[in-house]
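Protein in question passed on here:
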Amino acid sequence: MSLRIGPKFGFIATLAAGAVTMIGALLMWQSRDTTIYSDRYREEIFRKVRPGMKLQEVYSLLGQPLGIRPEDSPERWCYSEVEVLRKDEGFVVENFLSPSQCVLFDEKGKVLRVTGARTAVTKGMTTKEVLHLLGQPKNRKPASVMTLHYTAPGGEGLFRGRIVAVDSQNRVSDVISYQFYD
């Protein structure tokens, strides 16, 4: 007994193959890196930037950023572990959607707000009062006064964000690395 394939099946198979090809081409188009990088930016050099470095050291390594933005990011004490999505060659990718318990302070050391789990800490408390209630945090991030942007989006596709946050003493307070598809 032989299997006979009719013309309708061939037409449907051709349409399906065409659809798969178009979807593959669209996915490849969306995944291309459209990131614009600063003149001296190199990923291996960016990975050498660490919290505590002087601003001048960052400029020596990476040169001038594409943009500098004023930042009003308060000091942050976190008491719960942030969900880590991936650790990759010195970079840690955190889940920004995970509700970690953090206390944010203003420049005078007073509580601005609390994120995550409910706690007895309220707006206006001092750092001393928070330490008395919650103890030492698992993670402290100093306040940032500006961010150096070494990349910018260049259109639809993959964007690799590379940012260095700087504190009021002109030291690196945070190194931010992320990527998304637009």
